Please model this.
Amino acid sequence: MKNLFKCFIVTFLFTSFSHLVKAQSIEGYWLNEEKEGKIEIFKHTDGKYYGKLVWLKEPNRDGKPKLDINNKDEKLRDKPVLGLIILKGFTKDGDIYSDGKIYDPKNGKTYACKITPKDNNTLSIRGYIGISLIGRTTTWTRTTK
Model:
């Protein structure tokens, strides 16, 4: 009976621990695949996840901060790229973060997006138009502040 109880405890602890390992947070700092930008992902007071561009390998153009010159909204084109919220409104759905949008300042376009943690140190970022089949996937790597 004691061995059965020990076996139960070990199994319970193992399953509990493996569940904790599986539950990965996307909050933190991430380098994009090209290592040109660092994005801070955070949970907002509305319960959704957002991402802010907090570092650029080349933050300046012609000695001045890079501006969001490709934005469709002309009123926003004089806004610095550094500090832009490029991920908006993601909700956690199981292991996937979905229903969000990603903004690409390189072309000024916004795409539907889903984020899938591959492990604790990498994210699969899928931006798409309409359906997920029509899009592009990139991998972000966790980094420090």
